[in-house]
Amino acid sequence: MYEQQSTWNPNMPLRCLLYSAHALEKYIHNTGLSAQMFLSTLVKVPTPKLVVLYNGIQEIDDMILRLSDCFEKPGGDLEATVHVYNITAGHRLPRECRPLEEYSLFVDTYRSKVSAVGPGQAADEALSALPDGRVKDYLCSQRSEVVDMLLTEYDEQAVMQAIAKDAEAKGEARGEKRGERRGIKIGEARAENRGEEKLGLLITAMMNAGESMDALARVSTDPAYRKAMYQQYGITSAVLPDEAPADK
Q: pTM for the whole thing?
């Protein structure tokens, strides 16, 4: 199971565990192995391999992340190991793999130009900078999908800023009604928590429905798309737990 990300995220073992469990569940169902899980014969499934290809601007080395690092207490009985490889130009893997080296060149060129000329032209100039070969041919043949991928890359910082801004607005509105400073703080905290809970419910529903990684990334960064997905999956504030009354 491979995932490419441009923003560093230490939660990849937990995310990959959920992705893998969902994929294995579908595999067992589609291959008719569900009933055999209750028999004495050992059920065989594909061997999981969890890999993250990182090409963000934060400088990190190749590393291994483990699910157990996020456990509140040591000694848990569940583990997931994720191999993280930095594929930014100049790192080990691109030097050893020509296609990754050319892809890294494409991404670096795009980033250096997008703020000045816009995504479309930046993609064209980045493609022109590539040497002729299979990588350039493939990216050119999938140009619209490539540009869409670049536009919808998951950006954790942008997501957190958007959540914080929304929580701040809701908190201020509640605080004005209460008319006291403590009410402002309580309102902001509850608004932020409910916003995060609602987004979490949506992402879980989309994962269970088998939505693509591009869709999961887009719902985190595109408010209009997120609103449409809330409607499609029937997720409203009404499905969240009721708030306790505010302290007087």
A: 0.57
